[in-house]
Amino acid sequence: MTFPTGQGTNGHPVRAPQGPVPPGPVAPAQNRPAQPGWVHQGGSRQGQVAAGPWAGPMGQAPGIGAPAQPPGAAVVAPGRVAPHAPGAAVVAPPLQHPAGPAPVPAWPVPAGDGPFAAASRRTPFPMLVLVELRKLTGTLSDRILLALAPIVLIGVTVLIHTGTDYASSYASAADQISPTFYTVRVGHLLLHAVLIKLIAGEWQHRSAQPTLLAQPSRARYFLAQATVLLMLWLVAAALQLVTTLLVAPGAVSGVGATYVLGHRTGWVVGVCVLGSLLTILVALTVAMLVPNAAGALAIYFATVPVMLTISGLAPKVFAWVDPSSATAALATLAPVEGPGPVVVSLLLWGGLLGLACYRVARRDLA
Fold first, then answer.
1. Strand partners for 76
2. Where is this region: Disordered (predicted)?
3. Under 8 Å between Cβ of 335 and 317
């Protein structure tokens, strides 16, 4: 047997066996194309040069020969043993790429100032509040109502304090604070109309869709609207308080009485703040229960006169459902003694507000 030599790709001599092939069965080659860099031993004869990264016997490195095999042994595919093979069968090792497994590319991370990072950034909460304030003045009618609301509040306060019904009954502190109590109940109607249009109109005109698409959290959306509501309440309460403190002393002194509330300013502040809070919560409850601006406004402006009428005709009965029962008790004008009407009224309207929040949280935008 002769072994002619040759020159490999790396400069080392390569010897290929020549002559007759030793007797013995040979496993059939597998039906796969030969790939460069893979050592395929399934269909090669014993001692045959295989394709691989090294030019040599069986595609191995120079100086490393093929493993010795007994005569008559067969080279079979990985994991298979040739049936009826004389002698011991040689199981080839599994195929492996010489360079190892290919690296898995990492998922691209957006840059810190790129468009993807800007799109995935969370909307700041002050921006949500500014959006809700912009909705508050989004239409011409909203701006007109906001401009007229302070004028109506001041006009109603002056009219009630200087009316003839109260001019002859300013002898006690309760009589002097009663105009403030009634002013709080009816002086904020236009401001409540703006709030109802904002809350109920969101679901009627589907203007809540872009807001919730920009930030899907309804909790942050509700908190932004609650912030706007808090701002409206503080403005209304401050305007009510300042107007009352400026108008009431002159109205009382004009009928020859002594203004005794000058030493009880905290009492006046409590009535104005609590009364404006309870009335604005009633408007909020109506707006959240009725997802239609026109319907919510009609219900609210129809309910307020009815409530005032019932409170004049049956005050002891209406005190149990009156949302202003706590304000009347603070102003010592409650028709029923004891905390019972106050507790029942707060539980009733608090439950309605909770029901309204539950319905809005599960309301569909489509």
1. 91
2. 1-61
3. no
Question: In the chain, where are the structural domains located?
Answer: 125-361
Tokens 């009352």 label which residue?
Answer: 244
> Which pLDDT score, from 0 to 100, does residue 241 have?
92
Quickly count: other Cβ atoms within 10 Å of residue 75's Cβ: 23
State how far the Cα of 67 lies from the Cα of 46, in Å rounded to an integer.
10
The predicted pLDDT at position 237 comes to 92
Helix intervals (H) in 106-262: 115-120, 125-136, 140-161, 164-167, 173-186, 189-204, 208-214, 218-254
Do residues 285 and 353 lie in contact, with contact meaning Cβ atoms separated by under 8 Å?
Answer: yes
Question: Are 331 and 174 in contact, with CB atoms under 8 Å apart?
Answer: yes
With H, G, I as helix, E, B as strand and everything else as coil, classify residue 64.
Answer: coil
State the Cα–Cα distance between residues 131 and 234, nearest whole angstrom: 19
Question: Are the CB atoms for 233 and 277 separated by under 8 Å?
Answer: yes
What does the CA dihedral 160, 163, 168, 174 come to, rounded to 10 degrees? 0
- Between CA 25 and CA 45 the distance in angstroms is 10
Please give the pLDDT value at position 32. Answer: 47
Q: 């102003």: which residue's tokens?
A: 331
Chain centroid to CA 280: how far? 26
Residue with tokens 């304090």: 161
Confidence (pLDDT) at 198? 86
Q: Give the residues across from 75 on adjacent strands.
A: 90
What is the per-residue pLDDT for 76? 47
Tokens in use for 329?
């008790």
